[in-house]
Amino acid sequence: MNIFRLTGDLSHLAAIIILLLKIWKSRSCAGISGKSQVLFALVFTTRYLDLLTSFISLYNTTMKVIYIGCSYATVYLIYMKLKATYDGNHDTFRVEFLIVPVGGLAFLVNHDFSPLEILWTFSIYLESVAILPQLFMISKTGEAETITTHYLFFLGLYRALYLINWIWRFYFEGFFDMIAIVAGVVQTILYCDFFYLYVTKVLKGKKLSLPA
Amino acid sequence: ADESVSHDEL
């Protein structure tokens, strides 16, 4: 455990909690892509199946349980409890275009051809693109609530910190996981455009809106 | 199966 990974995990946790609290407090999930949230729930479910087979640390287990729990709570709020506020008309990204190629790739490029390992690989690849429905929704409506941009910022920050963590681990532990690194780089790149808008607009007190 | 594959990150 190094400081980059810890702050990365905490940043990820912050993102998840910010989103859940925003939806819960405002009793509305307007502007949030339910599809991205279902993909993240799928990511956590397929990645953390090792909760049932191996114990790494209390920290590891606790964080996994919190991530899974919060992601399902978010999906529940969007599709069940607060369904009336869900903006499905703007959430039109075709997720099969992500799931099918990502599933195929997980079968072809993995560390070990076993069910758990293929599901882990699937979750890594899927996480790298799971935010696309949300970014697509923002590009479609041309704007995002400021709190939603904070959520995206912490989610992107988590990825950037994990990249530094991997550089650190490579130098000090000789550890590297090519699948996680390549997917992590792809995922971080997807946030770059958003980071630019966040810094130039949201941090200066303006609402995030895109030119028509 | 390769038992050495372990994922300690989140």
TrEMBL record, chain A:
GO terms for biological process: protein retention in ER lumen; protein transport; vesicle-mediated transport. GO terms for molecular function: ER retention sequence binding. It is found in: Cytoplasmic vesicle, COPI-coated vesicle membrane; Endoplasmic reticulum membrane; Golgi apparatus membrane. Keywords: Cytoplasmic vesicle, Endoplasmic reticulum, ER-Golgi transport, Membrane, Protein transport, Receptor, Transmembrane, Transmembrane helix, Transport. InterPro entries: ER_ret_rcpt. It is a multi-pass membrane protein. Its main location: membrane. GO terms for cellular component: COPI-coated vesicle membrane; endoplasmic reticulum membrane; Golgi membrane. The chain crosses the membrane at residues 65-82, 119-139, 151-172, 178-199. It comes from the Eukaryota. PANTHER family: ER LUMEN PROTEIN RETAINING RECEPTOR. Belongs to the ERD2 family. This is ER lumen protein-retaining receptor. It comes from Nothobranchius furzeri.
